[in-house]
């Protein structure tokens, strides 16, 4: 027996939080009975309908990584009709991105219909490391680096930097190319880190999530994850 919202999320319909909202809104029924309170547990034999659509609990799981281009929305759909990361994946299965990258940020993003894995990767307690390459304004000095190593306070909470290195400095244009690894998932967090140091981000790309790297994937290209990679992602819990 598992909680209803968890079963809905793991079926790839939506996130667990959104599933809870759907339940409270009376848009979920179990065996024909509308459920509007949280806490119900269901078994594999129960028939679940979400917003009038029968929940398929035996759907084939799919896992992809995409090298997200700039100017693409990290969402399954966009109300304004803009291109989304899902548009790049050739599949008949309903998938969605795990986490997000800003509209102008490029790089590695995972897409799947496996709600259980998505929750493992997104949950803060699992501290999944993410590595970014950022081109920033200005040349970092020793004080900047010391602050990064000791942790930056962003909106009242410290962000711990797992790893950091300066890849290059352009003394003529006064810009730096840096690599930074964090386990944070807050929106715009990398940009906020460097803004706090008065070195605004000019360009940002995510190159790694845990052990997954882009490899030779060009902008807009994707590939399916191997069974070994999926198992290794599950082991991160």
- In angstroms, what is the radius of gyration? 20 Å
Structural class computed from helices and strand pairing: alpha+beta
Q: Low-confidence parts lasting 5 or more residues at pLDDT below 50?
A: none
Measure the end-to-end span: 21 Å
Report the order of strands and helices. EHHEEEEEEEEHEHEEEEHEEEH
Shape: elongated
CATH topology grouping of the largest domain: Alpha-Beta Plaits
Q: Tell me the name of the CATH class of the largest domain.
A: Alpha Beta
Q: How many β strands by DSSP?
A: 17
* Fourth-level CATH superfamily of the largest domain: Pseudouridine synthase I, catalytic domain, N-terminal subdomain
* Shape-level CATH architecture of the largest domain: 2-Layer Sandwich
- Helix count, per DSSP? 6
What's the story with the biggest beta sheet? Answer: 9 strands, mixed
The protein's oligomeric status is single chain
Summarize the structure.
With 237 residues, the chain is α+β, with helices and mostly antiparallel strands. Helix content is 21%, strand content 32%.
Structure description:
- The chain is built from 6 helices and 17 strands.
- The mean pLDDT is 93.
- It folds into 3 domains: 2-54, RNA-binding S4 domain (Structural Genomics Hypothetical 15.5 Kd Protein In mrcA-pckA Intergenic Region, Chain A, Roll); 63-124 and 216-234, 2-Layer Sandwich (Alpha-Beta Plaits), CATH 3.30.70.580; 129-209, 2-Layer Sandwich (Alpha-Beta Plaits).
- Strands 7, 8, 9, 10, 13, 14, 15, 16 and 17 form a 9-stranded mixed sheet that branches. Strands 3-2-5-6 form a 4-stranded antiparallel sheet. Strands 1-4 form a two-stranded antiparallel sheet.
- By secondary structure, it is α+β, with helices and mostly antiparallel strands.
- The protein has helices at residues 4-10, 16-24, 115-122, 142-150, 189-196, 227-234; strands at residues 2-3, 28-30, 33-35, 41-42, 48-50, 53-54, 63-68, 96-98, 106-112, 130-137, 152-154, 157-159, 161-170, 175-182, 201-209, 212-213, 222-224.
- A hairpin with a 2-residue loop joins strand 11 (152-154) and strand 12 (157-159).
- Helix content is 21%, strand content 32%.
